[in-house]
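Example 4.3 (complexes with small molecules)
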Amino acid sequence: MSADHLLTVSDLNVAYRGISAVTGVGFHVDAGELVGMIGPNGAGKSSTMLALVGAVRSRAAAIEFAGQDIRGLSPERIARAGLALVPEGHNVFSRLSVRENLRLGSTARADRSGLEDDLEWVHSLFPILREFADRPAGLLSGGQQQQLAIGRALLASPRLLALDEPSLGLSPTAVDTVFASIESIRARGTAVLIVEQRAQQTVAAADRSYVLAEGRITMTLTPDDAQDSALLMKAYLGS
Ligand SMILES: Nc1ncnc2c1ncn2[C@@H]1O[C@H](COP(=O)(O)OP(=O)(O)O)[C@@H](O)[C@H]1O
Ligand SMILES: [Mg+2]
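Answer. The structure with adenosine-5'-diphosphate bound is encoded below.
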């Protein structure tokens, strides 16, 4: 047991109808860290994230979060334990207002105290969520919906926020907003695990980045490696 890590994953395997998508993946995230996961399409990044929160079936030697074995727990229990995932895509309830979407996030909180402060903080990170509080979420732009999805996850007061390709399909300005918010989230003490296609930016920002290719972790990169474009290229081409 490695109770000193916030999250410990060891020998994680995911298969769909007998075909392996994730093979023997192991990594860790410490409290307050920003950890990246990069790699080409189909590498198994989303499957890994979904397995962590119990949204796809997996086999693992260990998935330990905050000292607890979370293998086999329901997604609700895992959220309540403090692990929140913002999945790929703009996951908002389109017909509900921004305010209602945010309120749903707060239902996964372990305790109610601090909710007002957290809401204030989320509004300061993403001011449009206050401005458009009464608007149906479906009327927001893609970038605004991503801010809402992240804001909703933050209202669960997670110890680890997992983000799956938060910048996918966003305008350059919206991408900057999302990356800036990640710095603030981390500065507030929340650990972040981020899957991203923007390899250079992710490797530069993260304490450590894992490269996933064909379901396996092939490299672990540090911020210094962000300048090494040949290495990043190799990480993607897997040769
Ligand atoms: N629901 C699913 N059913 C069958 N195969 C899937 C499913 N989801 C993902 N896969 C396959 O698993 C592999 C890994 O996919 P994924 O985890 O989405 O990778 P990434 O997020 O790195 O692009 C791919 O070959 C993909 O086609
Ligand atoms: Mg994916």
